[in-house]
Amino acid sequence: MSKFQPRPAPPPEAVPDGGWGWVVVGSLFVSSALVFGLIRSLGVFFVEFVQHFDESAQVISWITSIGVAMQQLVSPVGTALCYAYGTRPVVMMGGFLSGMGFILASQATCVTHLYLTMGVISGSGWALVFTPTVASVMQYFTRRRSLAMALGFTGIGLSSFAFSPLFQLLVDTYTWRGALLILGGLSFNMVACGALIRPPGGPKAAVVVETQSDVHSSACASALSKAYSYLELSLLFQRPFLTYSLAITLFNFGYFVPYVHLVAHSRHQGFSQYQAAFIISATGVTDIVGRLVSGWSSDLGRLRLPHMLCLWTGLTGLFLLLVPLGSLGGSYPGLVVVSLAYGFCSGAMTPLVFSVVPEIVGMQRTLGALGLLQLIESVGGLLGAPLSGLLRDITGNYTASFEVAGIFVILGTLVTTMLPHFFSRTAPPPLASPRTPGQDTKDAESALMKSPSSFSEGLNHLDTLPFTEPQLDRSSLNLDQGDLPLKQGRSEVDNDC
Q1: Contact indicator for 268, 335 with CB cutoff of 8 Å
Q2: How far apart are CA 115 and CA 112, in angstroms?
Q3: Which of 74, 83, 258, 445 has the least CB density, counted as fewest CB within 10 Å?
């Protein structure tokens, strides 16, 4: 049995509503720009890949879909690694994988090569970067959390504005192979972003491993217990979390469709390649404005976050339905107007998707919940764009693609209204964390270590705590009685261990 050697960490309440957190917000700004800014602007390469590899729209759509799905599918692995090794090295490794994926993709000889490089390798790197960085920002903010998330996510809108015409210029100048090589070098900047992350408090693994005292558990059972704890798998048995996960999955079916097929749709309507690229850029501008408006209005506290999320997602689905109507008769201004409205609403919904999570599961379980949520919603990210490409191959245009995408987003909005206490004006209490064997003992030991002045007083009664007992009544910890010398108390603890 290992001896109890606690490593005290500062409580979350001691962290200011900002401080170094603003540096972490800057890291999220750059990381989100290089993750989702790239994903949104890969539509520029869509036409090039179709022409070069002579494949259908559905086959090429899988490139982006696999990348998005891997970004979400591997997120639980990223959160578990953060618990075990800390956020900084995990994010830095993710930045390295992201860059290597694009560099290897520049040498692709077939579509399968692009699936493995841009899809699997870069997508896995995005997973190790995005979710841990988002959770780090949340740990630094309480009152200004929505605003901090909105500011961090403005990088997505800014990169959407700049990257699309930039990528088109790179393709025209260096061909798509040279453009991907440059994007790989650009992605390595996420390694520097990871080096800036300094999360408050220690990793969860330090507490779990260092307080382990059950000598009868096998190595396999211990590993399974740690995995269950790190991945927050108990959330899979909670109705609020499952309802919210279903809603976000439906959002994902439609959310990424414009960023994969809006350029191709514009080209199909007869607009030039730079006119098509400008639409994505203009959408990025309103995306920035939407995120800032959403963050500012959310922090006012006039409406609950789930209510505001439903407002913006409903409008996002509506404008997705209107995209084909905006371009009827070859009307470029009409398509631009609808795209601007879509960009504003989709930008406004994005910070709220993540800000709602602590209200449902509690701040202590947010990191694991984000990873698990993205694992579940990866189904929508994986199948949404290929379904859109399949509809295009069947119908010969992208009208049905955008109509179905809008329907999925609206369905997700309806599912969100099924959250428990959704129509209440006050937020319900977050889900309780599951109690593990010996957890009360661990809590008592941790409480003793937080106050040095009461250390000797607490040690007097640690010998009464049965370390192998499955549950311990917290009322039995009568810590206000007598004192014993420190040396005597420590000796008794060692004997018991």
Answers
A1: no
A2: 5
A3: 445
